[in-house]
Amino acid sequence: MGSIAPEDDSLRVAIIGGGIVGLVLAAGLARRQVNVRLFEQAQGFREVGAGIAFNATAIRSMELIDPGVIGALRLAGAVPLSAADEDDPNDYLRWIDGYNQRDPDNPYSQKFYYKACAGYRGFEGVRRDQFLEELVKLFPPGVIQCGKRLENIEQRGSDDKMLLSFRDGTTFEADAVIGCDGIKSSTREFVIGKDSPAGEPSYTHINSYRTLIPMDKAIGVLGEYKARIFHNHIGPRANLLHYPVAESTMVNVTAFVHDPDDWPAGKPTTLMGSRDDVRAAFRDWNPAVRDLVDLFPDQLHMWAVFDLWEYPLPFYNRGRVCLAGDAAHATSPHHGAGAGMGIEDALCLSVLMGEVLASTRRDRAARGAALTTAFDVYDKVRRTRSQWLVNSSRRMCDLHHQDDWANPAKWLKAETCFEEVKDRSHKIWYYDIAGMVMDTIETFGKAADGRVQDAVLAKDVSAKDVSAMDVSVKDVLAKDESINSLAINSLVAAVSEIRVDS
Ligand SMILES: Cc1cc2nc3c(=O)[nH]c(=O)nc-3n(C[C@H](O)[C@H](O)[C@H](O)COP(=O)(O)OP(=O)(O)OC[C@H]3O[C@@H](n4cnc5c(N)ncnc54)[C@H](O)[C@@H]3O)c2cc1C
């Protein structure tokens, strides 16, 4: 059995999964001097050639994770969603009537419903494959290992390292493991247990079809303005949205179609679909939408959309293993923010691993406890917001797909949804990400201090007790103690003495 041996005694963190979240996280850890290895089951990085859009919070998170990530985004041809609007520097999401033909003299006319301001460079679209390609270039050889499917994790060894086993028979020892292995995560089993009902993906009854269309062709059917700027054409039980990518040379188009049936167990969730399927779904829609669908290729990928809405995880961590991105909170895509939420996770984890490294530089034996604390803090900071997204995305789909859009008597009622759409969107786009970083650092600091104080206050604490202080930070935080730094220093000194004495 081959083994990938760690070369030194640095903080070694293994990331499982080389999707967007795993790669961005790896960049953040590498920047903070963590000895990171990323293991991807596939033989290479081949994202589908479809687009993805990142909101302002995700973009700001990338900047804080590593400016190299922003560099990769721009080199991959990212373009603001409203770049073509010369009269206004801000980006907007725009919703229009995709279904009705309200003007008998012009069947192509579409009622403009609403626009929500995402701010300056508040949303950028990029091709997934090109972004991944640029991200991979950030790493020196050896950091990313392909063809490594994780099969097992166990904690063992004198210093309680995590031992990872891969399908190819190799193993790897790490101080901590972060599962970024998507909705069908294998790491999740280790965190929540094999028999837990949590983490079971549910079918959202939505199928999505994605394709890229050359800009000139899209302009031919939509006109210059509409083709170059994000528009979401909504109607009963479906919607179709598009935005520019690849330096505005291509338009990313995604159609979301309601499916009343269940998804058979075991059936692959990514399939080849056909343009005819999409045509059938939009048969009665405004001709502007139908003409766009006519530009789809004969055959294109279709994704059955699953999420973790019905069975959310009760926690994202266990000991020195935690989950991020879709592995923790896979969401349906109606906010266009699933990857963005994973990038927020990556920022939180990058900051925490930096804190662990800094706080244990002189005391490597304390690393295990510090890592456990860090992952507890991560769970506390990230879980509520990321699970809210999963919930809110389902709600956005219901609002987009109302039957009322097809009923003139209900049009006004249907349009009242946009106040809610705005509130939900702003919660994502205008999040105080710097505040999250401060909260993360402060919570980690308090928790680490709490561990030290507890040790000193215990009358007969032994070295074994100290190392067993791998306890949940939640217990410590529940006390809500504030400790001044002079006291902390003497407590740290006292604990060091206890270790030496015993
Ligand atoms: C139609 C659609 C449109 C979307 N649009 C947007 C958008 O505009 N903006 C946005 O922010 N989000 C969007 N999303 C959501 C976004 O695509 C996901 O949230 C994001 O890609 C998840 O990234 P991830 O790295 O967490 O997981 P994944 O991309 O699923 O990556 C997981 C990786 O782990 C690997 N892996 C799995 N198991 C193992 C194992 N045992 N060992 C080793 N490797 C393993 C996989 O091969 C894979 O490479 C959209 C989603 C859909 C379906």
Describe the overall structure.
This protein is of the alpha/beta class and 502 residues long. It is 41% helix and 24% strand. It has 18 helices and 21 strands. The strands form four sheets. Strands 7-6-15-16-17-14-19-18 form an eight-stranded mixed beta sheet. A six-stranded mixed beta sheet has the order 9-3-2-13-21-20. The protein has a four-stranded mixed beta sheet with strand order 1-12-11-10, with no helix packed on it. The longest helix has 34 residues, at 367-400. The chain is elongated and about 75 Å long. The two termini are 39 Å apart. Flavin-adenine dinucleotide is lined by residues 16-22, 39-42, 52-54, 148-150, 180-182, 186, 208, 210, 254, 303, 305, 325-326, 333, 336-340, 342.
Strand content: 15-25%
Termini separation comes to 39 Å
Mean pLDDT: 89
Number of E strands: 21
The radius of gyration over CA amounts to 25 Å
Number of helices: 18
Adjacency order of strands in the biggest sheet = 7-6-15-16-17-14-19-18
The small-molecule ligands in this entry are:
flavin-adenine dinucleotide
> Given the helix and strand composition, which structural class is it?
alpha/beta
Q: What is the fold's blueprint, element by element?
A:
Elements: E1 3-4, E2 12-16, H1 20-31, E3 35-40, E4 51-55, H2 56-65, H3 67-75, E5 79-80, E6 90-97, E7 112-120, E8 123-127, H4 128-136, E9 144-146, E10 150-156, E11 161-166, E12 171-174, E13 176-179, H5 187-192, E14 202-214, H6 215-222, H7 224-228, E15 231-235, E16 238-245, E17 250-258, E18 270-274, H8 275-281, H9 287-294, E19 299-307, E20 317-318, E21 321-323, H10 326-329, H11 338-359, H12 367-400, H13 411-415, H14 417-429, H15 433-457, H16 463-467, H17 473-479, H18 485-501
Parallel strand pairs: 1-12, 2-3, 2-13, 3-9, 6-15, 13-21
Antiparallel strand pairs: 4-8, 5-8, 6-7, 10-11, 11-12, 14-17, 14-19, 15-16, 16-17, 18-19, 20-21
Helix pairs in contact: 1-4, 1-11, 2-3, 2-11, 3-4, 11-12, 11-15, 12-14, 12-15, 15-17, 15-18
Bound molecules: flavin-adenine dinucleotide (FAD).
The site of flavin-adenine dinucleotide has 35 residues, from α1, β3, β4, β14 and β19.
